[in-house]
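Hello again, I could really use a second opinion on something today. I've been staring at a protein lately and its backbone has me curious. Can you walk me through what the tokens say about the fold? Take your time with it, there's no hurry, and the full record follows here:
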Amino acid sequence: MNKDDAIRLVDAFVDNELDVKDALEIQALVEEDASFREEYERVLALKSVLRLKIGEEGPSAPGLLKKRVMRSMHRESMRRNVWFRPSIAVAAAISALVLGWGAFQRAVAVPAPLVADTMMIYRVESGNPLDIRSNNLNTVSSWLGEKLQGEVKTLSFQGGDILGARLCPFAGQKGVFVRYRFRGKNVALFIGKSSGIPYSLPLFSTFEVKGNKIYEAEKDNFRLAYWKKGIWFYALVLEDGGDSGELRDILSRSTFEF
């Protein structure tokens, strides 16, 4: 299947109307081709927005589907302390019902190649010496700004100590690796230019901190979080991450800087 043929089938792919062979070919393109992934996410986002109009002005949904949606909205809105904020939960519930479970999973999952890339770089960089060693946040931040040629916001959180930083590649681009200790555990923050990152984040975020959308993933007992701020793309890695609550604790602390 060539790319032009695949683009014509994106709509059917989002609606889970393709056979297994075609679906697998298109899924491979979504994961490997950045421009194709943008088209897929455009269609997915458009359909999600349209589906969110259920119950508003315009053609009404079939009675049974509408009842299922409303029941899910009610259930999810009561679960305020699990995975999503209520508004995100409602959108996710509608997407899961209308677009199908497979499309919903793709809309909330951090791309596997991004997670694998992050873990590979982390394992390499965690064994390398730091270019700058300092427990002073301002000293490290100034060094980061100089090396990345722009103001860079980094972590400052209660119970966590910054150890230093080093230059390193991230997702094929120039980036930095910042090292911390938090409650006896290793924490790392990767920072790179968002315009150069060849991966797209999911349609729905896992949670939000101070208005910033956070996308969470788990790999080999590591907890990972991704977000964008201005021109920067961030990836946080927590060793021995346990449950999701510990990662949120780090990101939600009052001294955290975005």
Summary: The chain is about 45% helix and 25% strand. The first strand starts at residue 132 and ends at 133.
